[in-house]
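User: I'm putting together notes for a lab meeting next week and I want to include a structural view of one of the chains we've been expressing. I don't have a solved structure, so I'd like a prediction I can at least talk through. The sequence is below, exactly as it appears in our construct file.
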Amino acid sequence: MREKVKQTERRPTAQKSATGWPFESKYEYLPTGKLCLSILNLYCTGARTNWADTEHLKIEDRLTDFFEGLVEAAAILRKRRLEAQERERQWAEEARRRIEREEQQRREQAFLDKLLGEAERWQKSQLIRSYIDAVRITAIQKDGVVSPASDLGKWLEWAKERADRLDPLLSRLSPSREKGEDS
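Assistant: Thanks for the context. Below is the predicted structure for the 183-residue chain, given as structure tokens.
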């Protein structure tokens, strides 16, 4: 509840304001003696938000209308609250879906990275095997035979083990890998 006021333009005075405040308002507000009941924070609804004294009706005579306006305002505010909750629920659902998509993309990228890593390891193991075969063929052409006990024979066996260890196809099929052991 508030009292309506009448706004009038102030007449300029040469004196300083009584409060000492240098920036005095351009307007003066005078009481009218008319009371007004208002519902605040009910913007853009089309609902009535003010009831005031008029020449024919006092504010006391308008209390029923005011209380009906309060009930209507409560319904509007409840509807707004429910709509806001629904918007928040939708935003939360969209955020959850976005997080799920991002997580799925991270998993996909991790699988792809692993696949590419395995393909590179397989390619390197094939390169090493090709090199071992070339060394063996060259040694056989030169000396006729490669003894497993010779330095070259030992090196060829060591290199084959490294190629096998690097090869993801062999490590996937290895029973020791299935048990969680690493060579």
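A couple of points you could mention at the meeting. Helices lie at 63-143, 151-166, 168-173, 175-178. The first helix runs from residue 63 to 143.

User: Perfect, that's what I needed.
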